[in-house]
Design a protein that fits this description.
single chain, about 260 residues, 9 helices, about 15% strand
Length: about 260
């Protein structure tokens, strides 16, 4: 099954992978900016988000992404991943290092990371609300948790819609179907990397950013003092220039 996706613009391919609190709509601000900068911007819904249903058999997100770029005819491409989408981007870049020419990670998750007590408490609270059937309260929890203090009402409502949609898709699926996890070492990644963290995010994601900056080649580590967990939605006008400048400096205009 091909992931639901949109394509805007022409030129080197840049694939955007969404946070697991959102879906591909989180990239609404970035799609026209990237197209205007001369890129073919592609955004997709991972399985269980937006317009892509949960499958009836185990799956691997990174392999889904690789299949999508194959269908789009992209021999090489840049990857932009936010949070859970960053975890997928890291796996893609580690498993197929020759194909990924640039890797931008925004408040990324990392496979194998042991959650802090604060992050674990959030997850337990979300699970309790969903088990009680209080989806709206679970949506509220996620908006309060993941959207930073400078975000406006429009960004908060967008996250609310996307998180509600994710719960609708996932709660309707078979709970016994689990994704296939593949161990992928960040040290295998060869693409230049941009690693963005938010000062108002969980300490987990700031720690992950610092750890990856020490491992990934030519990594640029930026911590935004105003940002929560979703900076590209909270203040796109500040994040977009950082992203476009990174892609240009990483040789993005040579991507095919």
């Amino acid at each position: 099954m091909t992931l639901s996706h949109d394509v805007t613009g022409t030129g080197p391919t840049v694939l955007l992978l969404h946070s697991t609190a959102c879906d591909r709509r989180m990239w609404d601000p970035q799609m026209p900016v990237l197209a205007g900068a001369g890129y073919r911007a592609v955004r997709c819904d991972l399985r269980g988000y937006g317009d892509t249903p949960v499958p009836d058999r185990p799956w691997n997100d990174a392999e889904d992404v690789a299949e999508l770029v194959d269908r789009l005819g992209a021999e090489q491409f840049a990857l932009v991943g936010a949070s859970g989408g960053g975890r997928v981007a890291l796996e893609v870049a580690a498993r197929w290092p020759g194909r990924v020419n640039a890797l931008a990670l925004l408040c990324t998750a990392l496979a194998g990371h042991e959650p802090s007590p604060a992050l674990r408490a959030y997850g337990e609270r979300e699970n309790a609300l969903l088990e009680a059937g209080d989806v709206e309260a679970a949506v509220d929890l996620n908006v309060q948790t993941w959207v930073g203090p400078v975000a406006g009402d429009q960004a908060r409502e967008a996250v609310r819609r996307m998180q509600r949609r994710a719960f609708e898709v996932q709660l309707a699926a078979d709970d016994d179907i689990e994704p296939i996890r593949v161990a992928a070492e960040p040290s295998a990644i060869t693409a230049p990397a941009l690693i963005v963290a938010g000062a108002h995010d969980f300490a987990d994601f700031r720690q992950i950013a610092a750890e990856l900056a020490a491992v990934l080649p030519g990594a640029r580590h930026v911590e935004l003092d105003w940002a929560g967990h979703l900076p590209s939605l909270e203040r796109p006008e500040l994040v977009d220039p950082i992203l476009v400048d990174f892609l240009a400096a990483a040789g993005g205009n040579a991507l095919r």
